[in-house]
Amino acid sequence: MKMFRYINAATIVAFLSLSSCDHFEEMNVSPNLPSEVATPGLLSSAQASIAGSFATGGFGFVGSQYTQQISQVEYPGFSNYDESGASSFGGLYAGPLINLDEMIKLCSDAEMTESLAKYGNVQNQLAVARIMKAWAYQNITDIWGDVPYSQALQGENGLFLPSYDTQEVIYNDLLKELDEASNALDASAQPRLQGDMFFNGDISMWKKFANSLKLRIALRLSEVNDSKANELINDNSFADVLSSSDDIVQLFHLESEAESNPLYYTNITANGGDEFMISEGMVDLLKSTNDPRLLVYADTTASKTDDGGYFGFPYGLSESEVDSYSASSYSQIGSYFLAQEAPSVIMTAAEVEFIRAEAAARGYISGGTATASEAYNNAIRLSMEQVGVDSEMIDDYLAQPEVQFDQNMWRQQIGEQKWVALFMQGTEAWSEWRRLDYPNLSPSPNAVISSIPRRRAYGSSEYASNSTNVEAAASRINGGDSYTSRVWWDK
């Protein structure tokens, strides 16, 4: 932005009589208009936006409904797979991805190094921006499949209609980006990174996050390129990854309406308390295995005290049916997730241990069933510790025969336990359900399409503004551009 200030002739003459022309420019700069972009603002804005889109809110809500972790109470459109809802990724490109791309350009410019150094070691700033960008694209491509990537974000170069890269190409480049960014991080470098809403500038945590993301992406390849998934997981060897219940990638929220947790805002502020409730399927599964996480995931009902007072809301009701159900007879989502300041959880050590368990069960890493069982138990323990379950209750849960690891049932057991552990991490829960096909879910009884969605269709805005490229991408999809078609890794 430019500011033009009008000064009358008499003022200019008086000013010049007292000052040299050398100082005129600095006297005429408004202190309220910054002359350079501050990278902390770019980073913070991108973190808040992407976490709000893929973790607790936005597409995270959609994923939690597709996987039947939660039920819609008021307007059950997404629970019934209504395709009329927004499906555009345009806002992600125009907002957080542009911010991260600008941060990468600034930190890559040698002439900016000195001015940016006050915001943290520039090499670390650059690496963190690349990790954030890779994480954003991993979510985008997991939702839609082929999307603009190599030609995206180049409007300043006159490229306004980007082509769509295949998901395979995108995944390969994301692995490269994460590998290079992780290797570039220097935890000893000063000054400390500013504007970091995830780790408050702790570079060692950024390295763990990047390495854990590489494992997540590697395992996504298991059904389409088993040998490469094996190679990637062994290359990483679970070194320097999220490993304790304190190792949580999350965005903290504040006790203010503007910065509150998206679930709190949607449920309490915008809809009076009953837009989303924990689903009947989730509560029933937790009850069936005496899972102590039930006491954290759900609150007791306001009007029913039998069976412990925990009742999940039926999933997939029609709009006419929901009117006949009293919300007071069903359990709210627990305050651990619903509180105004509750964090949006992005990735945990429990997820990494589930990856280790599956890698062992598939034979990717040594140890076989013993390692798979150990990692499976560790994953459950970490998930429970994260939400405050005490060790005695965890031990009792793991001792149950129906919970103990069985190599012959690894896909079902890991799939179901991961579904529970990824509660309110909707986008990732949906991706893992699509990959493992567990738990065994039936489509909503009032679904407007034939099956649970496997991807989101491209938005109408893309067909209106970038028709040639989106149509080319749609032509590559087996089954066409529909919600029942599958992304590349979903076999």
Q: Which CATH first-tier class would you pick?
A: Mainly Alpha
- Average residue pLDDT: 90
Number of separate structural domains: 1
| Coarse structural class | mainly alpha
Give the N-to-C terminal Cα separation. 49 Å
CATH architect. name: Alpha Horseshoe
By DSSP (H or I, 4+ residues per run), the number of helices equals 22
Strands, helices and their partners?
Elements lengths: L8 H10 L5 H4 L11 H16 L4 H8 L3 E3 L17 H19 L4 H4 L5 H23 L2 E2 L15 E2 L1 H18 L18 H18 L5 H11 L11 E4 L10 H9 L5 E3 L1 H9 L5 H4 L21 H4 L12 H4 L5 E5 H13 L6 H19 L4 H8 L11 H12 L4 H11 L23 H6 L1 H9 L16
Antiparallel strand pairs: 1-5, 2-3, 4-6
Helix pairs in contact: 3-5, 3-7, 4-20, 5-7, 7-8, 7-9, 8-9, 9-10, 9-16, 16-17, 16-19, 17-18, 19-20
Model description:
- The chain has about 500 residues and is mainly alpha-helical.
- It has a single domain, classed as Serine Threonine Protein Phosphatase 5, Tetratricopeptide repeat.
- It is about 50% helix and about 5% strand.
- It is built from 22 helices and 6 strands.
- The protein has helices at about 10-20, 25, 40-55, 60-65, 90-110, 115, 120-145, 165-185, 205-220, 225-235, 260-270, 280-290, 295, 320, 335-340, 350-360, 370-385, 390-400, 410-420, 425-435, 460-465, 465-475; strands at about 70, 145-150, 165, 250, 275-280, 345-350.
- The strands form 3 sheets. Strands 1-5 form a two-stranded antiparallel sheet. Strands 2-3 form a two-stranded antiparallel sheet.
- The radius of gyration is 25 Å and the shape is globular.
